[in-house]
Amino acid sequence: MDFIIIGGGAAGMAAASKAKRVNPLIDVTVIEAGPFVSYAECGMPYYLGGMFEDYSKLLHYPLTEFTEKRKIKVILNESVTEIDTSRQQVKTSGKKVFSYDYLLISTGASAVKPKGISGSDVQTIRSLADGIALKPEVEKSKRITIIGDGVLGMELASTLAESKKEITMISHHKTLFKRLDEDVGQELLKEFESKVKVEKNSELISVSRSDGEFKVETTMGQHTADLVLSATGIKPNSQLAFDAGLSLGKNGAIKVDNQMFTSDSKILAAGDCATSLNKVTNSEDWMPLAQISNKMGRVAGSNVGGERMTFKGGIGTTLVKIFDYEVGFTGIDSPTSTKYGFAPKDIFVKAGSKAAYYEGNSNAYVKITYDSHSGRLLGAQVVSKSNGAWRLNTLAEAIYAGITMEDLFYSDLGYSPPFGPVWDPIIIAASLGMKTRA
Ligand SMILES: Cc1cc2nc3c(=O)[nH]c(=O)nc-3n(C[C@H](O)[C@H](O)[C@H](O)COP(=O)(O)OP(=O)(O)OC[C@H]3O[C@@H](n4cnc5c(N)ncnc54)[C@H](O)[C@@H]3O)c2cc1C
Description:
This protein is of the alpha/beta class. Helix content is 28%, strand content 27%. Helix 1 (10-22) packs parallel to helix 8 (290-305). It binds flavin-adenine dinucleotide. Flavin-adenine dinucleotide (FAD) binds at residues 6-12, 31-34, 41-42, 44-45, 79-80, 106-108, 125-127, 152, 237, 240, 271-272, 288-291, 293. The site of flavin-adenine dinucleotide has 33 residues, from helix 1, helix 2 and helix 8.
């Protein structure tokens, strides 16, 4: 059986490896547009920030792990340009034709440039090849402008500011980092704005280059920079699928069922290019995140290999380090909950992140959104200089399991002074939620 995989990122290589493990007799071929497979996109901000110099640290495995050990055929620097569903064939940029019994589309997502901006004056970061090309530019630049205040923009700004760059951030929002509510983000954003020059409520008009520097024009004025980076969002790479007549879903991602099959029974899709089930709303969503992509890839590979696996859904858990803060959100917020027919209530708690007497104790900001009828947790946001990541992941697990505020209150979490106060902020929030339930 021929299993062709388009794209050798997280989803593609997880699928290839799983299919081979389940059924070593399958011929698996990965066709990858770039020069690398299976690497840590998520590590690129730290590579660019100078935490390490050797990009090969971002490669999860040497290529031979796949080609020799796992017996997966890998074709690099070749793009699939067309899928012919009637002949069950794909055509590539190198004019090659591959026939498939099953095809996986795992083409990831692309960075979207700010409106009206094209060309190379504004750089985006998506692939490792982008990162390698950008590294010397970042190193020689002192003043870097970042457009966009989403997760990647905030992460890049803090990482590059920590490596002594002067960062200007341009955001078209009134307050930065919209995914966090103002009460949760208050201290973080105050510190962020003391370290990064922030232009809020500002739209980019143009970027031009002269005498080796960039002139950046926005609705708020003009400034010069040595480098301009854009982090204004991504879109699923679903054009190939669309051209082949496959159904698209949320945000233009390729519509898949919970076994990763598309509207064509011989074609699967997984990762950032595909839709996935949101377990809180029980509806189709698009969650372009690393863990979800890996798992979708594994499910796809297993199903092609002949061992049924079902993707049970995700909740969009996102963690990021911004300066010294552990920041995260998961599930759905109040406005989204209302749209999906819940009766949401928010509990916000600001309390110590460690025992009061313990060195390094600081404020932990926790917000839990829950359904006031059932008590079920729906979403959470956490900001804290210490012990933020474990709290967010605990809440993610609680939301994923569908438990109530009362269940959370009685959850028997471990306690020790360095890791939290005995009445931890998440337990305080749960106790308040229990009391205020409708
Ligand atoms: C800078 C950065 C930081 C991130 N940080 C985090 C994080 O901290 N946490 C988190 O959860 N997620 C993070 N992500 C997102 C995460 O990396 C992605 O969700 C994940 O890599 C998606 O995996 P994928 O296999 O769907 O796509 P990718 O890993 O992007 O792989 C898709 C591959 O398909 C190839 N391709 C595309 N079109 C074709 C074609 N026509 N023919 C052949 N090959 C093709 C591409 O070259 C690419 O290699 C980050 C992403 C970036 C860019």
